[in-house]
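for ur thesis appendix - DUF4190 domain-containing protein. copy paste whatever u need, i formatted it the way the template wanted (i think)
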Amino acid sequence: MTTPEVPPSQTPPPTPPEQVSASSPYGWYPPPTQAPAPPPYGWYPPMNTYAILSLVFAIAVFPPLGIYFGNKAKRQIAERGERGIELANAGVICGWIFSAFQGLVLIIWCGFGAAIVVGGIANGGQ
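the 3d part is after this line
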């Protein structure tokens, strides 16, 4: 049997795709391709330890150390590209506020102490 001649203006009919295998569950079509994996989670630079210490010291321990550690953390963060600039800023701000509060309390305390001493001397040491 010969194949019929196709005029040059017409294209020949498409040939059916070959079957992948007789046991293929997909029949005439190849299996679907797998979707690409999602990108991994981003890597975060480490948190600056001095930034954490600045906030802790400014609020709970000794506010002038919070100012010192906060300024040191800002320099290190700029050099190393670490995280924690917000903590360092908060440590410096809280350090100044609590240092001023501590200074005011110290002045008032010294004033009361001086009043007690002066009052005791004025009353004849009684």
